[in-house]
Amino acid sequence: ATSLDLARRGARVILACRSKEKAEAAAFDIRRESGNNEVVFMHLDLASLKSVRNFAETFLKTEPRLDILINNAGVMGPGRTEDGFGMAFGVNHLGHFLLTNLLLDRLRRCGSGRVVTVAALLHRLGHIDFPLLASQKDLVAGQSSWHSFQAYCNSKLCNVLFTRELANRLEGISVTCYSLHPGVIRTELCRNASLWQRLLLTPFAKLFFLDPAEGSQTTLHCALQEDIEPLSGRYFSNCALRDAGTKGRDDALAKKLWEVSERLTGLSKKTKS
């Protein structure tokens, strides 16, 4: 829904997705519905840091502009990434972290660029255990359904903290960034969840969750709304500024997470903390 809205506004839209088949089908539908042929697929698997680097390299060679970067991955479920990180932490945080850093120069060159990262209200239940991360390459110690839920909450806290620290590092530069709670949307969020989790969530989803079009509104607000630049680094919900949870406003925690993430993704070899 976000991509369709942007395409209808005449934007060139890059669908950076893992599944070529699904993404190309979505791109076809968006081109048909919007009348905009500038909607294309590029392969990106956020569960692989190599894939993130390959995507960034290809993008920078082929795309002269980047005005808006929307980080919207939100997986919940067990497993490990290609690099051995917990799935939620690796995809929802580290993948976005590396991608954004690799594309920041292009955003700067294009003037008033924006980075929009889709977090969740559940970041309020998240916590970050750095010793556990160092020993387990994850922010949870197991693979149960409860651990998967907690890992998702932790990764969404990482999204909020990442945005906060990114804003601090971009101070004085025209690029701005925002995190947001989109509302609970009926998507494939729980495609990796256990059977009982899906059975539990499905009836509630039909009754209470937003459809994708409704759920995209706060993302579009952060991407397009004029005059919110002074609010860079802040958290939004229902198209309005909201206070993030207490841990999501901890600048020292945000800075430490950034520095640890630089090391985990290999960025610290090339950039200064």
Written overview of the protein:
The chain is globular. Helix content is 48%, strand content 11%. Mean pLDDT is 90; it is low at 185-190 and 204-212. It has helices at residues 2-8, 20-34, 49-62, 87-109, 130-136, 145-169, 195-208, 212-215, 217-224, 251-265, and strands at residues 13-17, 39-43, 68-71, 114-118, 176-181, 235-237, 240-242. The termini are far apart.
Give the overall pLDDT as a whole number: 90
Largest sheet strand order: 3-4-5-6-7
Strand content: 5-15%
Task: Find the count of extended strands (DSSP E, 2+ residues).
Answer: 7
Residue stretches low in confidence (pLDDT < 50, at least 5 long) are 185-190, 204-212
Q: How would you describe the oligomerization state of the chains in this entry?
A: single chain
Q: Give me the Rg, rounded.
A: 18 Å
C-alpha geometry: globular
Topology overview:
Layout: H1 2-8, E1 13-17, H2 20-34, E2 39-43, H3 49-62, E3 68-71, H4 87-109, E4 114-118, H5 130-136, H6 145-169, E5 176-181, H7 195-208, H8 212-215, H9 217-224, E6 235-237, E7 240-242, H10 251-265
Parallel strand pairs: 1-2, 3-4, 4-5, 5-6
Antiparallel strand pairs: 6-7
Summarize this entry quickly.
This protein is an alpha/beta fold and 273 residues long. Helices cover 48% and strands 11% of the residues.
